[in-house]
Each structure stands twice: as structure tokens, then as C-alpha cells.
Specification:
mainly alpha; two-stranded antiparallel ribbon; 3 helices
Length: about 160
């Protein structure tokens, strides 16, 4: 692969990463426009998510710029290795790691938020079921019109 092939490949990679950053930024903007935060917990999570994703956009845009401008740095100068080339690609590697770190940060935050929402939903369901069981138990203790206590039998075979 010659220097021009490396340059063309690097520029193509930079354009691809820039497009990804653009679409991610548009996605963040679009979701902000359509979001109605219902409570403080949601506002906190979605505000943080937006910050994390804009950081991701910034890292990707920086990565695209470094790759694009780094494509003009030749790997060899006067028959020797070019230290600037090594530095550029070490910066690229660092930005790739930063992109992965931001993605992991966002994934973990989303996972935790979803876990808390599931727990709250389950607690609400358990509380509602407990309320219904108390109502049924209270109705079972009241005498019916004839003055007799109704008997409730709960069977495990499903033939209540």
C-alpha cells in the first residue's frame, strides 16, 4: 500500500466517522425535541444521557478531524520513520479508546436507569396486588345478606 493509498483510505475513514458523528448528533437533537420529561428522575437521566451523547459526538468529530489531517502526514520522511506519523496514530488510538469509554459509560447509565424503573414497576404491581388481596380478605370477613360468612376456597388447580 503506497502513501497515496494510505492517504485515500484515511480520508475515506475520516469521512465515514464524520458521517457517524453527524447522524449521532442529529439523533440526539431529534430525541430532545420529542421528549416530554414527566418527573425529576427522568429529567436527570435524559439530561445526563444527552451530555454523554454530545461528548460522544465531540470525540467522534475530533477523531474524524485527526484522521483526515493525519492523512497528510507521511509515514516516512527521507527514508526514515516519521515521529509525527506515530504521534498522529497514537492520538487516533486514544480517541478510539475514548469513544468506547463514552459508549460504555452511556450503556451502564442506561442499564442502571432501566433496572431502577423495572424495580419501581414491580414494586407498584406488588403493592397493587397486596391492596386487592386486602380488599378480598375484608370482603370475606363481612357477612352476606343472609347473615352467613361466605367461604372462599383457593385451589391450586385453577378451578376457583
Amino acid at each position: 500500500m503506497g502513501a497515496t493509498d494510505l492517504q485515500s483510505a484515511s480520508q475515506g475513514l475520516a469521512i465515514g466517522v464524520a458521517m457517524i458523528a453527524t447522524f449521532l448528533g442529529l439523533s440526539v437533537w431529534y430525541h430532545r425535541q420529542g421528549r416530554l420529561d414527566r418527573d425529576a428522575e427522568d429529567q436527570t437521566f435524559y439530561g445526563g444521557q444527552e451530555v454523554r451523547r454530545w461528548i460522544g459526538v465531540a470525540v467522534l468529530a475530533t477523531l474524524a478531524a485527526v484522521v483526515f489531517f493525519g492523512s497528510w502526514v507521511h509515514p516516512r520522511v527521507e527514508g526514515r520513520g516519521n515521529p509525527a506519523f506515530v504521534i498522529v496514530w497514537l492520538v487516533v488510538l486514544g480517541l478510539v479508546v475514548a469513544t468506547l469509554a463514552v459508549a460504555l459509560w452511556d450503556w451502564v447509565a442506561t442499564w442502571r436507569f432501566a433496572r431502577e424503573k423495572r424495580r419501581a414497576l414491580m414494586k407498584d404491581h406488588v403493592d397493587e396486588l397486596a391492596h386487592h388481596l386486602r380488599v378480598i380478605a375484608a370482603a370475606a370477613k363481612r357477612p352476606d345478606r343472609n347473615g352467613e360468612d361466605p367461604s372462599f376456597e383457593i385451589s391450586n388447580d385453577g378451578s376457583d
